Amino acid sequence: MRNFSVVQYNVRYFTRYANYNGVLLGAYRTDMADETITDKKSQHGEWSSRFAFIMAATGSAVGLGNIWKFPYITGENGGGAFVLVYLLCVLLIGIPLMMAETMLGRRSKENPIHTMEILTAEAGADKNWHYLGWMGVGAGFLILSYYSVIAGWASAYVVKSFFGSFSGASAGEVKAIFEAFVASPMQLIFWHTLFMVATMLIVARGIEKGFEKSVRFLLPWLFALMVLLVGYAMTTDGYFQGLNFLFKPDFSKLTADSVLVAMGQAFFTLSVGMGSIMVYGAYLPKDVSIAKSSMMIAGADTIMALLAGLIIFPIVFNNGLHPNSGPGLVFETLPIAFGNMFGGWLVGILFFVALVFAALSSSIALIEPAVAWLIENKGFSRQKACIYSGSLAWVLGLGTVFSFNAWANVKLFERNFFELVDYLTANLMLPIGGFCIAVFAGWIMKQEHSKHELDLPGEHLDYQIWKFLVSYVVPAAVFLVFLNVVGVL
Q: How far apart are CA 255 and CA 474, in angstroms?
């Protein structure tokens, strides 16, 4: 990017995007005294209300990480004490970081790549900061490539549950079903394709007709299904054992590594660092409180994770299974319970439907940053941008498909394709992205600009609390997570 003022930069983008599909969507108003952006609208439109934004961002946050990952890492780390640390991390790390990323997106009203270019120029900072936008879009895109494959598994398990594949099945039989399924590239490709097409169709319809309508349908049904499944779990003999495991802290089971895992889960579950929240923030009207919205989103996301625990652990204990079964808890352990308990046929179907709904609400957020960049930078229509983005993510997803069969023994740095992409995104790109967002918002961005965007109630004290958390606590915490995942701690 050339070294010119933010006013010149914004005039260029206003000229380019002022008339989108024949409609003047908004203009810049620039304060010439300090060259600050004060008014602008995204060319893609805006959320119709604060509720719409909260629903969409909650959908982005609620996904496989809540229903698949949270229960198994809670089981691996001793239960209640881990949950308590996780809740503290959401409060002290997740919410301030979500506020920061939303703020950056809303200030620029652009995709993450252009956001960092504009805000870097506005702050008079080193132009290399704009690579943060590229990394966020890239991370979300790579995650989508394998997310679609795993979500395809959940889709297939809805059908398997419906046809009674797990009825009366032993642990060995359930394991054999799973292994035969992932060993078949054609089956995995079919379900991967189906899920990716569904994602593309929703995103192609735009903000109000696509995003808002989909999450208004998916999230209430997801919540209803989760509550229904909790109601079933309450009827089992293992309910109180599961309740105690989830909420009664036993700090003797808590280790330093458990604290770091809780910190990492709090960070990743809110979808920060991958461009999704930044681009959703770009569609956020100026009169919506970022702080209140972030707290509501984090609260809803946490409730979904806890509901998943209240469903899974009673079923696990009621059937004499182990809560520390690891990543196979959903696909290899729970089907044993579903196949051998009263009403398990229906419960299994509802559980995997909920898992698919959660995955779909997240996948539409993962693809949107790339779609927005193609529209803004290449002049593509939304439909064309969805086809290009979705098709490329689908092709990359084939690497994950083959990682479980044909390419299982093809490894680079001791990891197959899926493991390598997962490690690159979750363990490197997202922590680095989160760290950089916190540093930029807390140290690089001008204080009057962040104050203006956040408009926190109570003004000085509330703003200073956020400023302290995002400037010191979040970078330190994310840095510790990063050291842990790369094996230094």
A: 21
Other Cβ atoms within 10 Å of 42 Cβ, number:
25
Beta bridge partners of 31: 36
Can you tell me which residue has the tokens 């991967």? 192
For the chain, which residues make up each domain, given as ranges? 41-485
Tokens of 265: 């889960």
| pTM for this model (two decimals) | 0.86
Fold of 41-485: Hydantoin permease (1.10.4160)
Enter the DSSP assignment of 388: H
Residues 6+ apart with CB under 8 A from 182: 153, 188, 404, 405
Mind listing the pLDDT tens digit for each residue in 390-438?
999 999 999 999 999 999 999 998 899 998 998 888 778 888 888 999 9
Enter the tokens of residue 58: 């909650």
User: In Å, how far are 76, 166, 331 from 171, measured between CA atoms?
Assistant: 20, 10, 11
Which residue in this structure is represented by tokens 């229960």? 71
Amino acid identity of residue 83, one-letter, is V
Q: For the CA atoms of the chain, what is the radius of gyration?
A: 22
